[in-house]
Design goal:
Structural class: alpha/beta
Helix content: 40-55%
Number of strands: 17
Largest sheet: 15 strands, mixed
CATH architecture of the largest domain: 2-Layer Sandwich
Strand order of the largest sheet: 4-3-2-5-6-7-1-8-16-14-13-9-11-12-17
Number of helices: 14
CATH topology of the largest domain: Endonuclease, Chain A
Length: 386
């Protein structure tokens, strides 16, 4: 298992939702000169998806080496086929992660773009319209989906490029000569170039050397928390170690607040709510985000540590799927992240311990059954979940 290694002198900008992310992404793609590595879980056939697809195609047509990797399950079989036809005709290289689940149930849930080894995007935003629900075709959300991506420049980009290149290599069926060429490309390092000194680490989760790297980053931050923890996640169902770390922080006097998405999947809501009695008893503040679909996977600890990425705080993200997060050790970035989460908390509804204690027996039974079922599934699918 790899440790979390920070590198200095990075320029990092937090982008909130697609209104900030997609214009920046398309502008960067249109400015690409040499290479684009692009990964996403969902690549939708809507106006947003078409705009990003066309930007990738334009880059390929002007001679940029464009490599696109999408997840088969997240994007869908038919969409992956049609998208591949358009991009390959434009001259891009295109691959699909784990088609037909031939390599088990693990998905590539990562959202990564690296351009010319100079600029990178890492976060939780899929390629789809902010106003359209990503699990119900045509359903319009009451407000744009709430999510984040980090725009990065500096030495950290070399690490992100190395990992994205490695994922591309592992996904394909390549002859030895081609693999050697790709590994030679991976050894090239870009010159550092940035304007601010933010420290950052790029952490991924896979089923080889990085099985618990993202969870470890969270546990280390929670273990060192002294004043406050703000954590936002669409789905809350972590293992026992994660829940204990939250409880221990609260018991030390740290103000711990969880902002949890609700209203997307009834069964997921029931699983999350099965943890509420213990969380509330431990002194943890729980807020349900109801304004729109919460898709952000972000956290800030005290006044310096923050993370943004693709990993939910649940068993699938922490123990099964392939994920990618940026961890930032910088007071300016942490302050920005804190302000965003606090606005999200203001848009939510706090769970009152007394009111939750008065819920009926039927709802308690449903929540309990949902937890037991989820735990059994995770025990089968994920080594380490408890």
């Amino acid at each position: 298992m790899r440790s979390v290694t920070f590198v200095d002198d990075n320029d990092i900008t937090l982008l909130e939702s697609g209104v900030a992310f997609f214009p920046a992404l398309i502008a960067a793609l249109d400015a690409a000169r040499h290479e684009v590595l692009f990964e996403t879980y969902i690549f939708a056939e809507d106006d947003t998806g078409d705009a990003v697809r066309d930007a990738l195609a334009r880059a390929a047509q002007r001679g940029v080496k464009v490599r696109v990797l999408v997840d088969w399950f997240g994007t869908g079989h038919r969409v992956t086929s049609r998208l591949g036809q358009v991009l390959t005709q434009a001259g891009a290289q295109y691959r699909v992660f784990n088609p037909l689940c031939k390599r088990g149930i693990a998905r590539s849930h990562r959202k990564i773009t690296v351009i010319d080894r100079e600029v990178a995007f890492v976060g939780g935003i899929n390629v789809n319209d902010d106003w359209l629900c990503d699990h119900a075709d045509g359903h319009r959300l009451p407000a744009p989906r709430w999510d984040f991506t980090a725009l990065l420049r500096g030495p950290i980009v070399a690490q992100i490029h190395h990992e994205a290149q490695g994922q591309w290599t592992r996904t394909g069926r390549l002859r030895l000569r081609k693999r050697l060429e790709l590994f030679r490309e991976m050894r090239k390092q870009p010159p550092p170039s940035c304007a601010s000194p933010a420290r950052a680490a790029f952490v991924v989760r896979d089923n080889l050397r990085n099985r618990t790297t993202i969870q470890r980053a969270y546990l280390q931050a929670l273990g060192h928390a002294r004043h406050s923890v703000l954590l936002a996640t669409p789905y809350f169902a972590p293992g026992r170690k994660f829940r204990k770390a939250l409880a221990h922080a609260a018991q030390r006097g740290v103000a711990v607040t969880l902002l949890i998405g609700v209203g997307e999947f009834a069964i997921q809501d029931a699983v999350a709510q099965s943890f509420y009695p213990k969380l509330l008893a431990d002194g943890i503040r729980v807020v349900e985000y109801c304004k729109t679909q919460l898709h952000a996977k972000v956290a800030v600890v005290d006044d310096y540590w923050a993370t943004v990425g693709s990993s939910n705080c649940d068993g699938l993200s922490l123990f099964v799927n392939q994920e990618a997060n940026i961890v930032v050790d910088d007071p300016v970035f942490a302050a920005s992240m804190r302000a965003h989460i606090e606005r999200g908390i203001a848009d939510g509804v706090e769970v009152c311990p007394q009111e939750f204690a008065d819920i009926g027996w039927l709802r308690r039974a449903v929540n309990g059954c949902a937890y037991v079922g989820y735990k059994l599934v995770m025990r089968v699918c994920a080594i380490g979940y408890a």
